[in-house]
Batch of 3 targets.
Target 1
Amino acid sequence: MSIVRTDVPMTSWLCEQIIDELVRTYPFCRSELLTTTAFDRPIRTLVIGSGERKVLFTAAHHANEWITTPVILKFVEEMAQAMENGGQLAGVDARELGERVTIYTVPMVNPDGVDLVTGLTQPGQLQYETAAALSQNYPSIPFPDGWKANLLGVDLNLNYPAGWRQAREIKFSQGFTRPGPRDYVGRAPLNQLETRALAGYTEAVDPALVLAYHSQGRVIYWQFADIEVPGARELGERMAQVSGYALEETPFESAFAGYKDWFIQNFRRPGYTIEVGEGINPLPLSQFDQIYQDNLPLLVTAALG
């Protein structure tokens, strides 16, 4: 019986319960508290493997892209099961994978926002009403389904010091000048607990590669600015081939201040944004099985490099 639930909307509480159960069940898994949010929700890591190569996979920077969290959790569970049973993962021996690679994950970067979109935070609660008040600054964005930010109204994937001022200029020109559901860059880069903690964790792990999971579009973005990372395009092409996703350059208006942008800039190593599924966020769980089928070989390919 699977520990990871893929039949109900993901919440911060459910994510934490799943991580705890995975760690209890499989000796290959371990977890630590990365930080707690401004509203006291935990952000947890989940790590599997013991290899020399280190990679870091993240999901749910954006609240209404929470379907990416069970992708990461299910991948870790299936890898742990295969390691225990001597099985394979996307055609790769799982024990060998675990001996070659240590896979660090942060399955839910934005638990405050996720709980708003998935309904754990409900009308009448102070956090809900605070977010609803912020959303009134942007009446054209559906509430709460259009919410991407944390509950302070900062878009976490626009809060990294990698062209942050350019991101600010672009988003301000589009009218996103104050806290709200999406596209507000914050008052300064890394001024949010979530982004500061993830940047610090990334520096501590010092990974060879990062993936940042988002939705939607079935696209892999691989570049930042004019930085040429050796092998990044070639690995991106392999990930595109095994997943059926397109490898593309990031659109200019979205090309700054993201997590993978910061990683490429600071580490000069491959970093990718993976946009799963198709449609309007939040994507329905009916898409999950196809999303996972597409991304399992991508995740294994990224892990091996």
Note: The longest strand covers residues 53-59.
Target 2
Amino acid sequence: MYLTLNSVHKFFGDTKKETLKDISLTVNKGEFICIVGPSGCGKSTLLHLVAGLYVPTSGTITLDGERVRSPGADRVVMFQEAALYPWLSVIENVMFGLKAAGLPKDRRREIAECYLKMVRLWQYRDYPVHQISGGMRQRTALARALALDSKLLLMDEPFSALDKQTIHILRSELEEIWESHKKTILYVTHSVEEAVYFADRIVVMAENPGRIKEIVPVSFPRPRNIEDAAFVSLRKEILSKVQLSARKIAAEEFDTTEDRNI
């Protein structure tokens, strides 16, 4: 398998509570995997472990046969906030990582042009990032991530801070890009609709401690229509699993010892 998580556990600090428990997952090259679950189930923590930003308390993570121990150029993370350099232009932001990688200027510009055209931002290439919309900033961040040509793209709720109309546009654009490039993507989202729209498989997580509850394959042909009956049915099914976990957690938190003995 291309990406493998083998019995990964994660504690933070001196707490006795596990954030993640016994996470085992395999991902094939070119797969689009979405991770959903209730708030606090460790979705982002899992992504950060794969990125090498956190180290597992126990267990192993490997990518293309290499053990993940720290951040590396083979993994690129795209966060909820675009995290661009505000003093640079759109194209300079995309070229920044390529410069750090040692590519010559002409090659950097050639690559940046390719990906900015792909995300439909070439005409805005010289704009300072503070003069473009939130959706455009996320497109810039996506172009920057794709330009680095990493083995794995990690996306942590990249569209959640945007308005609904912009989200629909960016979903469609990301779908087209993935279809043409088959980049391996691990995508964390609170939106079950988004997961069904994108994923080859959906990892449904449960909380307390964070663990994989179920992995649901999505076999619908692409591009997917969110109004199709099969799409709506699967979205409802997965949403009910997520909500059931959330309700169970809430009941455990507010239940009292006396109530449990009744």
Note: The two ends are 49 Å apart (CA to CA).
Target 3
Amino acid sequence: MYRRFIYSFFIVFLCNILLYSARSHAQSSSQTLLEGMALLDDGSNKRDYDQILEARALFEKVTKVDSLSIWAHYYAATASSAVANMIDEGLIENGRRDLADHINTGIKHLEAAVKIDPSFADGWVLLATSYAHKISVRPFKIIGLRRKYNRSISLALELEPNNPRVILLQGIMDYFLPGIAGGNKERAEERINQAIAIFEEENITHPYRPKWGHDTAYARLGVIYMDRGDLVKARKALVRSLELNPEFGWVLQELLPNLEELESQT
């Protein structure tokens, strides 16, 4: 009887230890993910290459945690995309030799994310933009990549046609893709304005779901107006972008100085 009691007590004690360990690990992993998200936001604002890579390393630490893996893969891909864009903008010395690797890393993470949840529209649309980016780096692979791009963007739109990030990214690609590849500058402006209208009503409370895009939409609108020579509208768009995100490095360091130079010439 005594032995049975001791054995039962030991089993309960061991189960409690395992449960506590699992909870502690989940909390630690969640903290790592949130820390990475904050680091990514700050690094993206500052356009800090090393900080963005540090954030990606944190995300990759929790890709094996089942409850967090889809978000870890998504944000690791977002970090890869941010670095690839910085390389394209010439912000990283000798960065072009690593450009394809960053794009491929992003694609790998996004393909893992949409495999976990095939209904993840934010993952599909970011994957589409990554395929489009890879086409610009590996144009000889355009046939296979264009097929993957079309499938990804179609799925994103089918799953969440009113997702503002889906609409925004489609608009951005419309603006920069040549007409022969399906681009359309007028349609791009319409889609970005459509995304802005939806962003105004969006209210996301989930701690990990993507929330980005509202400030970027206004910044992209500013680019369109500057290219068109409508500097008054461009300034309004960029000012609104900074109202939403006062630390937005792309606007502060590049777009506003470019606008001021154009304004000085008129």
Note: Confidence is low (pLDDT under 50) at residues 9-25.
